[in-house]
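Retro notes (design track)

What went well: tokenization of the new backbones is finally stable.
What didn't: we kept losing track of which sequence belonged to which structure.
Fix going forward: every design gets posted as structure first, then sequence, in one message. First example under the new rule, 286 residues:
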């Protein structure tokens, strides 16, 4: 083990997912610092960003391994070798809890498959913070991460969000915020309540609340800065029942985007979770 014996003696060998602050640096936990100090190697998304954070905490691992979306798979073999040697390997993301819309999931899966212990130090998660301060129901929450950029998968996910009976939280980049809100308004209805949050836990934390129609207008007035967590109110029971008119509308929207009638039928069937023969009958008769 590397670093001081007093901390490594209380940190078990294995893969550790260590939550780091999403904004305010005071949110790092003492236990998280102890694990990072005990780690021989720390996997991170960006060595410059993480290096600055680690320096503030007086953490000096032997190595930093870059494990972003493109390199996480390549790091698995080396991490498994370290775990086989009973080392402490920590995983951090640029902000928040690793493996939640951030690298870490594949490392965890590989470590579990190889029989190595996996631990975590709990801490900040942006979607949880956003949901708790949104003012929307929090007894049941669905987290959907980032929507696909385009195509059939995006349309299907938007339809699922529109029909979701739980409060849903999405992440979105600032330059794509307006487009996503326009799409949400079209599928969920302009009156659906929403909360837009950004810069969470920071000095300039911002929470905006209103309808999706109002949110679209708001997005046109704000500077594109800081990743957003979008909290969307659940669908009412009456909104979840699929009418023939909704199926006709969704079929028309997909064929207008260039899909064949067959592909449109398949997409609408998957999105609404209804019988294909019902959608087919409506498509043929419309």
């Amino acid at each position: 083990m590397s670093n001081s014996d007093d901390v490594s003696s209380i940190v078990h060998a294995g893969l550790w997912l260590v939550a780091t602050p999403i904004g305010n640096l005071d949110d790092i936990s003492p236990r998280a610092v102890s694990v990072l100090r005990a780690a021989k190697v720390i996997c991170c998304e960006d060595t410059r960003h993480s290096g600055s954070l680690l320096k503030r905490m007086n953490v000096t691992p032997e190595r930093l391994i870059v494990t972003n979306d493109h390199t996480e798979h390549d790091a698995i073999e080396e991490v498994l070798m370290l775990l086989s040697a009973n080392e402490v390997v920590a995983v951090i993301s640029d902000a928040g809890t690793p493996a939640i819309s951030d690298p870490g999931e594949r490392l965890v899966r590989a470590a579990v498959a190889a029989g190595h212990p996996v631990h975590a130090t709990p801490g900040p998660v942006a979607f949880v913070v956003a949901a708790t301060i949104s003012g929307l129901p929090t007894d049941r929450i669905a987290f959907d991460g980032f929507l696909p950029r385009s195509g059939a998968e995006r349309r299907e996910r938007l339809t699922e969000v529109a029909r979701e009976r739980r409060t849903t939280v999405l992440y979105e980049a600032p330059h794509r915020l307006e487009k996503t809100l326009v799409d949400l308004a079209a599928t969920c209805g302009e009156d659906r309540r929403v909360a837009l949050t950004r810069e969470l836990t920071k000095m300039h934390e911002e929470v905006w609340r209103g309808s999706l129609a109002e949110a679209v207008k708001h997005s046109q007035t704000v500077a594109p800065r800081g990743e957003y967590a979008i909290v969307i109110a659940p669908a009412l029971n009456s909104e979840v029942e699929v009418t023939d008119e909704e199926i006709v509308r969704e079929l028309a929207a997909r064929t207008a985007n260039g899909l064949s009638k067959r592909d449109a039928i398949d997409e609408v069937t998957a999105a609404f979770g209804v019988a294909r023969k019902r959608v087919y009958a409506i498509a043929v008769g419309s």
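Added context from the reviewer: The two ends are 69 Å apart (CA to CA).
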